[in-house]
Amino acid sequence: MKSNQAIKHGGNLHQAAKLYPIPLKNWMDLSTGINPRPWQPPDIPTAIWQRLPETEDDLLPVAQQYYGCDTILPIAGSQFAIQSLPYCRQRSRIGIVSPCYAEHVYWWERAGHRVVMIKPDEIDRWIHGLDVLLLINPNNPDTTQYSTNDLRRWHHQLAKNKGWLIVDEAFIDSTPQASLLTSFKKMPEGLIVLRSIGKFFGLAGIRLGFIAAETNLLAQIAQRQGPWAVSHPARWLGTLALADQQWQQQTRKFLVNQSESLQNIVSSFFKNTRKTHYFCYFQHPNAKHIKHQLAQQGIWIRRFDEPSSVRLGLPTSDAELHQLNETLSLFFSSIR
Ligand SMILES: Cc1ncc(COP(=O)(O)O)c(C=O)c1O
Questions:
Q1: Is the peptide bond before 176 cis (omega within 30 degrees of 0)?
Q2: What is the CATH number of domain 46-243?
Q3: In angstroms, rounded to a whole number, what is the distance separating the alpha carbons of residues 284 and 273?
Q4: Helix or strand run (H / E) with residue 329
Q5: Tens of pLDDT along 324-336?
Q6: Which of 205, 211, 242, 264 could form a disulfide with 81 if both were Cys (CB 3.0 to 4.6 A apart)?
Q7: Cis geometry, peptide bond prior to residue 307 (ω within 30 degrees of 0)
């Protein structure tokens, strides 16, 4: 089995600066799906650095209000749940809708489960033979979206035989009405939802996320995590960000507009581009060449091998959008 060090991720700007002769500060980083205009953290009081985190602070009630669900647990990034869930069930047959964030496949395989990679339009054909179905909504990288009706139907089918539906909602905060969490004050058996503070709030560095599930499973995850895994600064900043409704409303508008502008630019050079509010995606046989050409100009993007494809995150400003457009015009002929 490959090492998890071999799994590629975006956000690796230090690596970019080593591979190309461009200083770190001069790069435009479009290699992630992280909001480029993060929630702005205030100065952190010394006591927050100094004192151990406490689970009785305000984070849980504020997060319950934000997500509309009570059975949630703060974790050190949704990545922690991705690594832990495979160890909370006996050997199972799990369908993972692909292409997808590679960590999911890695950890289920590593824990000894039988993993089948399935396409979104094959779910109904596979579901009766699965113990667990895992998908990302909206999907990273290929942007596929699922209706809550389909998700509930799949959950019912799986739960009949003690199966699980796991929905990774890392990129759903810009469209909260599409989340499964708003329908459940208490999560039913067999339904697990993952949420991230990294993407919408742009706070990937504090390593905070949530898992929503029935309480027995939350207790197992809490035990695996131990008492101090979510740092006190992460809990404190997360509480403020989750309560800041004004910022959240403005940010939803920004993400909608900025992703529209990005899509307009990218689709004038490449066919069949698709978008979420956080990134643009298209398949292309020369994805490697596209990445290299842009990197030579200081624009760092993400490419995938299977299928050969490209993902571009949101530029921070109009100036960056303009720079991207100019760079694409220099190297790629327009399809218009
Ligand atoms: C789909 C998806 N889920 C989960 C994660 C993990 O996010 P975090 O651990 O920062 O919450 C990522 C990170 O890129 C992701 O793309």
A1: no
A2: 3.40.640.10
A3: 10
A4: helix 318-331
A5: 999 999 988 766 5
A6: 211
A7: yes
Contact between 287 and 323 (Cβ < 8 Å): no
Joined together, the tokens standing for residue 251 give 């940010």
Please give the Cα distance from 194 to 72 (Å, whole number): 9
Angle at 40 between CA 34 and CA 42, to 5 degrees: 140
| CA–centroid distance, residue 214 to ligand 1 (Å) | 21
- C-alpha–C-alpha distance, residues 10 and 12, integer Å: 5
Q: Are strands 302-304 and 309-313 parallel, antiparallel or unpaired?
A: antiparallel
Cβ atoms 272, 283 nearer than 8 A? yes
Radius of gyration of the chain (CA): 20
**In this structure, which topology does domain 4-38+246-331 adopt according to CATH?**
Aspartate Aminotransferase, domain 1 (3.90.1150)
Enumerate residues lining ligand 1, CB below 6 A.
77-79, 101, 136, 140, 168, 170, 196, 198, 204, 209
Give the distance between the most distant pair of CA atoms in the chain.
Answer: 59
Residue whose C-alpha is closest to residue 29's, from 259, 303, 295: 295
Phi, psi of 35 (to 5 degrees): -50, 120
In the reported structure, the alpha carbon of residue 75 is separated from the centroid of ligand 1 by a whole-number distance in angstroms of 12
Whether the Cβ atoms of residue 135 and residue 167 lie closer than 8 Å to each other: yes
CA of 10 to the centre of ligand 1 (A): 11
154: its two tokens: 């799949």
Paired tokens of 70: 């009570």
Give dist(CA 53, CA 18) in Å, integer.
37
CB 34 within 8 A of CB 277: no
4 band by pLDDT with thresholds 50, 70 and 90: confident
Domain segments of the chain as ranges: 4-38+246-331, 46-243
Q: Give CA–CA dist 159/165, Å, rounded.
A: 8
